């Protein structure tokens, strides 16, 4: 259910109570005092001078279920930002989150423990070898471009090659106007312990310079620690 539909349903359920919406091209900076209902999209929550009496955090399943390495941490950040606008519990404020209470991110919100949540997320990433426990470099391009890039690179010791893998859904192709089939564009991941991040970046930068000087036919894009791994 979208924000507009939610506002309509609440307006019918609470006849006579003003319903204000905030989001998209109509973001409210603040709302006046007095009884009202505010329906806001994520990040568009207006400021209430006296604090909100309650907050209902919807669509937890959608936020936590996103195929994104940072889905849990980003969800907790958004939840705590919204909850911080509510009056303290001693003054009657309440926060209700619509999500499974056994999920660690929900528990972190209930305990108001973002530090513990971050520690747990880091431990999980250390176990599977994901940033920030390591550094990752992503090379996007055709198979020929990736192979040429790796051949031109003097990768530091300890670099692990992962892939190639398909580009993440919705990722921009590394070049435009090329006649290569989009299905041929891939992503190669290079993983190295945190201490080798600068050396890996320097090696890839040097390889790009070499390929640029010789006008390589197949362009490639390099990203260090991309948000979307694929």
UniProtKB/TrEMBL annotation:
<dbReference type="GO" id="GO:0043138">
    <property type="term" value="F:3'-5' DNA helicase activity"/>
</dbReference>
<dbReference type="GO" id="GO:0003677">
    <property type="term" value="F:DNA binding"/>
</dbReference>
<keyword id="KW-0238">DNA-binding</keyword>
<keyword id="KW-0067">ATP-binding</keyword>
<protein>
    <submittedName>
        <fullName>Primosome assembly protein</fullName>
    </submittedName>
</protein>
<dbReference type="GO" id="GO:0006310">
    <property type="term" value="P:DNA recombination"/>
</dbReference>
<dbReference type="GO" id="GO:0005524">
    <property type="term" value="F:ATP binding"/>
</dbReference>
<dbReference type="GO" id="GO:0006302">
    <property type="term" value="P:double-strand break repair"/>
</dbReference>
<keyword id="KW-0547">Nucleotide-binding</keyword>
<dbReference type="GO" id="GO:0006270">
    <property type="term" value="P:DNA replication initiation"/>
</dbReference>
């Amino acid at each position: 259910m979208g924000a507009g539909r939610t506002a309509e349903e609440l307006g019918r359920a609470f006849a006579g109570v003003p319903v204000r919406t905030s989001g998209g091209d109509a973001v409210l900076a603040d709302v006046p005092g007095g009884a009202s209902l505010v329906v806001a999209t994520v990040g568009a929550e207006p400021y209430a001078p006296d604090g909100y009496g309650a907050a209902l955090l919807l669509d937890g399943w959608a936020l936590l279920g996103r195929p994104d390495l940072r889905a849990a941490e980003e969800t907790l950040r958004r939840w705590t930002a919204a909850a911080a606008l509510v009056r303290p519990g001693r003054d009657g404020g309440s926060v209700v989150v619509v999500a499974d209470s056994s999920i660690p991110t929900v528990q972190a919100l209930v305990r108001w423990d973002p530090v513990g949540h971050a520690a747990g997320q880091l431990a999980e990433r250390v176990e599977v070898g994901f940033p920030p426990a390591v550094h990752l470099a992503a090379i996007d391009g055709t198979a020929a471009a990736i192979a040429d890039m790796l051949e031109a690179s003097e990768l530091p010791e300890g670099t692990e090659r992962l892939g190639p893998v398909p580009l993440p859904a919705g990722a921009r192709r590394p070049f435009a106007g090329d006649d290569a089939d989009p299905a041929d564009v891939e992503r190669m991941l290079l993983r190295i312990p945190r201490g080798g991040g600068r050396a890996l970046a320097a090696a890839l930068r040097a390889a790009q310079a070499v390929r640029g000087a010789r006008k390589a036919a197949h362009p490639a894009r390099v990203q260090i620690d991309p948000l979307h791994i694929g």
